[in-house]
Every structure is written in C-alpha cells, then in structure tokens.
Amino acid sequence: MATITKTKSGSFKAIIRKNGRTIKTKTFKYKKAARAWANRIEGDREAMAAYGLAGASIRYADLADEYMDQYSGRDSNIQHKHVFWEQHLGETMLVDIDAGMIRTALEKYANGEALRSSGIGKDGKLILKKTGKQRAPATVNRMRAFLSSVFRYAIKQRGYLTENPVRQVPSLTENNKRVRYLSDDERKRLLAACRASDWDKLYLLVLLAITTGARLGELLGLHWHEIDFTSRTATLPRTKNGDSRALTFPPAAMTELKKHREVSQRLVFASETKWRKSFEFRKHWHKALKQAQIEDFKFHDLRHSCASYLAMSGATLQEIGAVLGHRSLQTTLRYTHLSTRHKQEITDRVMGELEL
Asked: Which domains does the chain have, with CATH numbers?
C-alpha cells in the first residue's frame, strides 16, 4: 500500500514501497492526484517490477558514462551522440525513460540543421559548422541506434532494466539511392591534391577509402598492430554492424602504408597530440576538395566509389557486398545499374560478333 505524506511546503508526496523498501516517490500539488498516481503504479505489475530493478535509481547520465568508458567501437561521431542524449535524458532515471521522450528528442534532432566538422579549436574541442540543410533520415537513425546500444548494454551487461524503450520508436525510412562516385578525372585531381596536403597522411587515408571500401570510422579506428603486412590484410574486431571483418589492401595501398609503418599499438591516423584519438583531418579534406574542384562530394562517397569501380569492372553484387562488409544484399542493390551496364557491354561485344 502506498503512503501519502504532506510536505512542509504543502504539497503531497506519494511513496511506493516493495518488500519494505522504497522503490518510487513522486510529489504532487493535490492529495487526490498523488493517490491516483500511486494506485495506477501499484496496479501495473510491469511498472512495479521495473521500479524494483537497479535502473530505478540510476540516471541516464551515469549509464551513458559507463557505456562510453567501455566503448571500443569505431564510430567517429560517438561523442556527438553521447552529448546529445545526455542533454535530453541525462537527469532522468532509466526506468522513467519512455518512447514518448525518445520520440520527442529525435523529432527535435530531425528538424535541426545538419552540421559538419571543421577542424579543432584552440580549446581542443571539435568545431561544427551549419550546412544549411536539414538532417537526413539516416543521420537521425544513427542517433537512435546509439541510444538503443546504450540500453542494450544496460540490459545485457548491467542488468539495470529488462526492456529497451527505443524498440518502441521505429526507424525513419531512409533514401539510400544516392550513389556519387569519382570519375577517373576527378579521382586523379583529388589524389593529387591529397598528396600536396599539409597533413602527410591525407593521401593514405583517401587511398585506403577508395581501394578498400572501408567506412571512415573503420579507417580512423585502425591500429598498426591490426595490419598484417605479409598477407596485406587487417582484421577489424568490431565494425558498424557489430561484426568483425577483414580489409584487404591492394599493392598500391600497401606500398603507401609501408611509408608510414610503425610497430606499435597506436592508431594509424592518430592525433599528433593525443595518440589515443584520431587526427582531425576535416579541414585538410575540404581544402583538397576545393583545390581539386570537386563539388557535391562527401568522404563516405569514397566508399561508393570503391563499390562503383568494382561493379563496373565486373564484380558481382555478392562480391561487392563482401568487400564493403554489408550484412544484407539489399544494401548492395544500389549498384545494380552499374553491374547491369557492365553486363550489357559484355553481351553487346560478344553477341555483336555472332552471325545471327
């Protein structure tokens, strides 16, 4: 039975106990409202069970800090996502976070203006500039996915909760049809600009992105000890999909890697001042794009370039998916038209020589 007590300020405090232990309290202006809330909670078996869990007394901010301390993934924007959710849910107890709160936060994020990195300021913090564009559904979905990962950690690793509230908020429909890739001329201009960059590893970073199809986070998270120079491979222990996978380096990429080779546990693209963090390369990247006179091009489009070159050279969709580390063939289907063009060239050439 819940207890309703009157506070010194004149409000009413509802106290719910389970097995003699206080598991939830809430203060109301009127006694009737306090009693109604207590009756509703006590009548809800799931709520009572939830309030009996450890998560009932843990703030989201504390959980998120725990999660970040053990995080070993390769998401280059992880800190941005961490800060966003702490701002919206930081002081809320885990058990009180529901789908409505999450949906409201994501809607606000979706309606906000997209930002892009523009280097590091004198205070050591990331400089973000507005792009003038609304955030894409895929960007919003990644923000949702981060929160879901935090709650999965709370459930599976810590036992704070039994249900993940993020699962009640569906992902947005994404439009992933855009395939922007470098033409031969654009590729030559960009690589030339990267070679001339003030940062001596920009050419290596861009070359690896083009020749391996790796994601930016995978490359920035790559350590020297993960590279096998004999087999020209690297094993990524954890990727965006949560699986380990191997990168294969063509001869040209391996030759460039050897120029910078280290025998260490350091990141290949480590910061010059903080070796545990990746180098902030964005200003060098945007400068190279400008010098190469390449427009409407994102770093992720280097991954599209890799896949497009494979498709136009006759690789099957299954082979392209294997190189890029796609879990589903559906993700690789955006390159179908390029594969079809290659098949048409083959049939035109071969069938054109037949006497029909």
From this structure: 3-52 (no CATH), 60-168 (1.10.150.130), 184-349 (1.10.443.10)
